[in-house]
Amino acid sequence: MIQNRLYFLISLFISVLISGCNSKTEVDDSLIFRLNRYDNISSLDPAFARTQANNWVCNLMYNSLVKLDDSLQIVPDIAKSWTISEDAKIYTFTLRNDVYFHKNQIFGEDSTRTVKASDFEYSFQRLIEPEVGGAGSWVLNNVENFKAINDSVFQINLKEAFPPFLGLLSMKYCSVVPKEMFEKGQEEFRKHPIGTGPFQFKLWEDNIKLVFRKNPLYFEKDEEGNALPYLEAVAMTFLPEKHSEFLQLIQGNVDMMADLDPSYKNEILTATGELNPKYKHIIDLHKYDYLSTVYLCFYLDGNDAVDERLRKAINYGIDKQKMVKYMMNGVANVAEGGFIPKGLPGHNPEAGYTYQPQKARALIADYIEENEKLPVIQLTTVQEYADICEYIQAQLAKVGLTLSINVVPGPTMRDGKATGKFAFFRANWGADYPDAENFLSLYYSKNFAPEGPNYSHYNNEKFDELYLNSFKITDEKKREIIYAEMDKLMMEAAPVVPLFYDQTSIFLQKNVRNFHMSPVKLLDLTRVYKTK
Q: Cβ–Cβ contacts within 10 Å for residue 414, how many?
């Protein structure tokens, strides 16, 4: 097969890279981690780390001031410590002195240099420059100014207090890059990007392959003092067909596969969501909670806006337990709480609706008594989720509601959501940063789409007041209580129908060890290794 030949050639190429001038071109396969992305990488520049694919590669190459651990706690990265002023507006970071940029001739013949506070000053300034056109400038919208106090101290002043700010800084947009690389413009960095991360750029053939080598100067050590990363190289291919990626996994040509696709879901999983026994001797299945809520959204401002009683009836009328079990092979958490997903502080398990068809019928009867007849409600979705929407259609028919399904292309869906063309549509929201404010911002009245993410146009003065007050509270526990209250208040009006809180399914070859996937779905291979 052509695909198998491609993997053979890439493996041989990596062997030559690792061997260098050594006449022996074979390399221990356990030192190379192979994976595929069916969606292409559009940029290796952290300023453009907007898509999951771009985020994955940027997380291998770059570091920021802070980062997230697997428990969503903010931990040091290049900043070894920091202080926050009493008014929560001034953040002062003290940097490590042992972080080096990847070796490159821009620093001298095959040389490097340490990261300084002025590098963060340059990187942040570059992030907000209109001519760069980066996707992450919004992260610094609330920043008044930033400056290098000296080589090891970097300070950021906010316009207004914003407790989730450290979470924003953990995003790959805020990674540090060397200013020397941009003295001749942006093009040189695009050809050969330089960061500080555990892996350094080696080769990229657009839509074919991407190769990283171990960074021998990486600053992190394991608990025994051993240098990280353990792997020697990472090789990524870009087969666009998801079923082909599945075949490559089964044949042992890739070490991991992320997520499920309908083309092979029922082949690789049992009806209860376990790994098919016939593959257990080849691969392992790992499930990780992912901070993402999949939901149905009502547009409340249109002439055909759905009545609140019917919105609540839809919430009560869907058996989400069966939906997750039978439609998704159990790979998700049922959303019977509010909009904030399970696992994120502020999640309120009592804010949502459970399956109670008798309540749905009572609400529908009340509506009919006043309006004589029921409308046909149209649910808009993309093809990928048509089967779930058809399940919802069948469920609501049992309580007396007629739902029609409108399947549209992805671009049409995105435009319709933003401009209020659809009265009822399927949507999802994944965390950009690990704070419930990220989810509650969808219901703040000043964030109406298309300028903001409030697709429902939900508007409640009490909610807005709580939302703004939460910025003044630095105590995390107190803020969580307010978040839970806001979530419950919003759900009482039922502008949305939370369906499930996402999970990520990761399939790994049996010799892969120490792999973890964070709840914000960043690929981290720093501590991963393979047995022989």
A: 13
Longest dimension (CA), the chain: 85
Find the Cα–Cα–Cα–Cα dihedral 154, 225, 202, 505, rounded to 10°.
-90
Q: Which residue has 């993309």 as its token pair?
A: 382
SS3 call for 199: strand
Buried b (16+ CB within 10 A) or exposed e, 361-391: bebbeebeeeeeeeeebbbbbbeebbebbbb
Q: How distant, in Å, are the alpha carbons of 138, 418, 456 from that of 450?
A: 15, 5, 11
Helices (H), ranges, 353-455: 357-371, 386-398, 410-419, 437-440
DSSP letters for 80-106: EEEEE-TTS-EEEEEEPS--BPPPBTB
Whose structure tokens read 């789409």?
A: 449
Stated as kind and residue range, the H or E segment containing 422 is none
Close Cβ partners of 362 (under 8 Å, ≥ 6 residues apart) = none
pLDDT at 7: 55
DSSP E strands: which ranges in 411-495?
Answer: 424-430
Residues in the chain with pLDDT values less than 70: 1-27
pLDDT of residue 12: 55
Strands 403-407 and 377-381: what pairing?
parallel
Q: CA–CA separation, 350 vs 365, rounded Å?
A: 25
Asked if 202 and 104 count as a contact pair (C-beta separation under 8 A), the reply is no
In 3-state terms, what secondary structure has residue 144? strand
CA–CA separation, 197 vs 217, rounded Å?
A: 9
The alpha helices in 129-264, defined as continuous H runs, are 165-169, 187-191, 242-250
Burial classification of residue 120, based on how many CB atoms lie within 10 Å of its CB (0-12 exposed, 13-18 middle, 19 or more buried) = buried
Q: What is the pTM of this model?
A: 0.86
Q: What is the mean pLDDT of the chain?
A: 92
pLDDT of residue 468: 95
